[in-house]
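Recall the central idea of this unit: under ordinary conditions, the amino acid sequence of a chain determines the structure it adopts. In this exercise we apply that idea directly, starting from the sequence alone.
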Amino acid sequence: MYSINDTALNVSEYLLQIKAIVLQPANPFTWASGIKSPIYCDNRKILSYPIVRTFIRQEMVKALEENYGTPDVIAGVATGGIAIGALVAQELGLPFVYIRSKPKGHGLSNQIEGVIEKGQSVIVIEDLISTGKSSLQAVDVLRDKGCSIKGMIAIFSYGLDVAEKNFKKAICPLVTLSSYDAMLQKAVDSNYVSHGDLKTLKAWKTDPENWAK
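Accordingly, the structure predicted from this sequence is:
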């Protein structure tokens, strides 16, 4: 699921350069779930850097073609997967839709925005995988519509065991361009963090919920 190759290292380098990934072992962030974390990842920053944006788009297209083949539709998970998903769909000349976290509260009450039909094959685009819960909710929505999910592609994953279990249970293949382990390797090699901080960062991934304790 998560391999350290040239693409993974190059993506990590870009994310660190533009501060889409910020590492603060001594002053951890608090996630919405309440988990204390030495890392914060905001891949929306990619959109502000044309060179990085183009590189990510091309690598996503390559990963899509190599791992899944061409689908009928590209679907982005709101909100982080919308823009990059639309870029991928444009590059491939394919229809695009996006999935809300919950049905719209007015109008047609859509949860899937765009045109999609029963029986169509779909590849889901996401920006970030933590536990995978919200990403897989989008997969469930598409399946309820009668779509066939070829798999999901994300820019970055924390590589948590719970995510791997969730994707396996959902029978949804996942490919990520980069991962936490690849990012750590690049962060040390490029002096974004010290070797001393590396131990702390590795310990967090082993037990995120209890790390701060």
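The domain at 6-206 is CATH 3.40.50.2020 (Rossmann fold).
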